[in-house]
Amino acid sequence: MSKICFVIEHLAVEHPGTLKPALEAGGYEVVSIPAAAIRRYRERAEEVGLLIVMGGPIGVYDAPEYPFLSEEIDIIRTRLKAKRPVLGICLGSQLMAAALGAKVFPGTNGVELGWAPVQLTAQGQQHALAEVAGNGSPVLHWHGDTFELPEGATLLASTSRYAHQAFSVGSYGLALQFHVETDAAELEQWFVAFAGDIRKAGPETLSRLRADTAKHASTLAERNARFVSHWVSQL
Q1: Could you identify which of 82, 146, 205, 232 might form a hypothetical disulfide with 201, taking C-beta atoms 3.0 to 4.6 angstroms apart as the criterion?
Q2: DSSP H helices in the chain
Q3: What is the CA radius of gyration of the chain?
Q4: Name one Pfam family in it (predicted).
Q5: Predicted structure pTM score
């Protein structure tokens, strides 16, 4: 199962997007799994060649109401202990932090929403992440939760609002608070699914998101392909 990639999805609109063709180009078979059904796939999820955990509108602290979150944390912990590759995006990154024993909590600086660059650390500049987020290239932020940096993890990226935007664990674990997988068509679905977030952010938010998406989404797909190729070549 070394060339199978499982993708855990918390919502159908938060899917692997441009990650999927990039992974398929690298020889992976990409299989999406609904998070609520993860128990049925747990053994395989612990053993496949690559696991990606996507985002969603719930938080790690919601596990009592959404017990599959605890199962995901256990799966991630098992994989990381075995040095099996995991990529966590947004909620997925927060689940990775929790699996490594770090606290995850609502941020005190509000929701970070929109296209903006991250500041890569020295280690981040040497990481495959630089292919998609280097040189001030904008990525998509859409989160309000944050986390402590797990013990033993390497910080790769920050923003002025939230310091912990990306971290790595060895060469096999990568957590991204921001999104690198989205394209314009996917985001139009998000604009409906997460209309509440957009309204709270202000009356100009939707028009700004659409304008910035038109400007940045196509180059993000190209950058993402280089990032995926670079990262999986090291696994």
Answers
A1: 205
A2: 19-25, 38-47, 68-81, 91-99, 122-125, 130-133, 184-193, 195-201, 205-233
A3: 16
A4: GATase
A5: 0.97
